[in-house]
Design brief:
The chain starts with 5 loop residues before the first strand and ends in a 5-residue tail after the last helix. Helices cover 31% and strands 25% of the residues. Helix 1 (14-26) packs parallel to helix 6, helix 2 runs antiparallel to helix 6 (114-128) and helix 10 (272-285) packs across helix 12. It has 2 domains: 6-191 and 353-403, FAD/NAD(P)-binding domain; 195-346, no CATH class. With 408 residues, the chain is an alpha+beta fold. The structure holds flavin-adenine dinucleotide (FAD). Flavin-adenine dinucleotide (FAD) is lined by residues 10-16, 35-38, 43-44, 47-49, 53-54, 136-138, 167-169, 174-175, 349-352, 379-380, 390-393, 396. The site of flavin-adenine dinucleotide has 37 residues, from helix 1, helix 2 and helix 13.
Length: 408
Amino acid sequence: MKEINNVAVLGGGAAGFFAALSVKKHHPQAKVILYEKTTKVLAKVKISGGGRCNVTNSDSDIDALCMAYPRGGKQLRNLFYRFNTTDTQEWFESRGIPLKSEADGRVFPVSNKSQSIIDCLMQEAEDLGIDLYYNKTITSLKKDGILWNLSIKDEAATKNFNAVVIATGGNPKISGFDWIKTLNHKIIAPVPSLFTFNMPNEKITELMGVTVENVYMKIKKHGIEVSGPLLITHWGMSGPTILKGSAFGAQKLAKCEYQFELLINWVGEKNTTILFNQLQACANQNPQKTLFNQKAFSLPQRLWQFLVQKNNIPQTKKWIDLSKKEGRRFVECLVNDKYLVSGKTTFKDEFVTCGGVSLSSINLKTMESKTSAGLYFAGEVLNIDGITGGYNFQSAWTTGFVAGQLKT
Ligand SMILES: Cc1cc2nc3c(=O)[nH]c(=O)nc-3n(C[C@H](O)[C@H](O)[C@H](O)COP(=O)(O)OP(=O)(O)OC[C@H]3O[C@@H](n4cnc5c(N)ncnc54)[C@H](O)[C@@H]3O)c2cc1C
């Protein structure tokens, strides 16, 4: 490979910063310019994780890590051997940003402030002499011999570079894919991922605020099944399980315009014989108590009473009077409780795009375009997205790091 002396990184988000830093680390002689369209870099880092920045996940098992990506998990495997969640934590901690892991695996700066992450990245960029240019919207890229010729909005003169890293993010309204398409890359139509489900006609919304620790959530028609905690909201359902389901079903759910049937198993147990026996044990122990007031499973009281009513079991009905038929019907409802979803809501303004530059257009050893030598991609502009838990930043750090090496 010829000596790299002039590199442009397009997009001042997590992936663009990590790519620029990686270029400098691997090619210290190169002049590196980072072009950002807006007046601010790292804007999403700032608002991420509710202002705390869930910078990565504490899970260091690469197989488990790959499973957290509905799109790109398989392809990220080898990249994670080069830069993974452990590397991310070491990277920030060795630069004076202590991190902490929460019980669910999310990793945050001890300061609980995303600004700590921004300050660290900005300081590193300054120390390494990376030039940051703001208010520069890239409008086109053309190959000129062995150089890349870059056009910037409202600027007549174009600029030449040996290599370019595109890290313009996944939001088609902000980054726009037209100029990337012209370079013969396959683009998977972007659709939202990580959203909550609207249930405007379901009475369960009256239980807003109720959480259930472990449910199975199934969207049978689209072959989606996930498990974990669920939160009932005033508009429908949310929580890690719903967000995970929305991520794994992003494309299919977009296609059906977010109208579908959902099945909830409230008790986290699928074996109906076990559940029926548990119901009978409760009846034997509490024959004179009402079903309404005596739970057979450790569900929130309001949810239990809601389900009793949903099964048309009168509030006064005693356990001793519950017929086997009624018991079986109740068990069926506990494991396959139907809800109609109609629409979606963005989760805490946190959205991630499913879609973007197809990984089939990319050499996954280098993140270089297969069709355009010297052109690299990193971050959400690619068809890679993860569930919540720090996985989206991790793929930005990983792909940025590898792209910035500019070769294997
Ligand atoms: C509210 C919110 C909270 C989130 N919280 C978390 C979290 O806690 N943990 C987590 O892992 N993930 C989180 N995410 C997802 C995560 O922020 C993104 O996956 C990640 O920021 C993607 O990084 P990126 O650098 O690829 O893209 P971006 O951060 O989108 O950066 C792309 C940059 O490119 C610039 N740009 C676009 N087009 C051009 C152009 N033509 N020329 C020049 N510049 C251009 C944009 O202005 C932008 O600054 C959150 C997302 C949101 C919206």
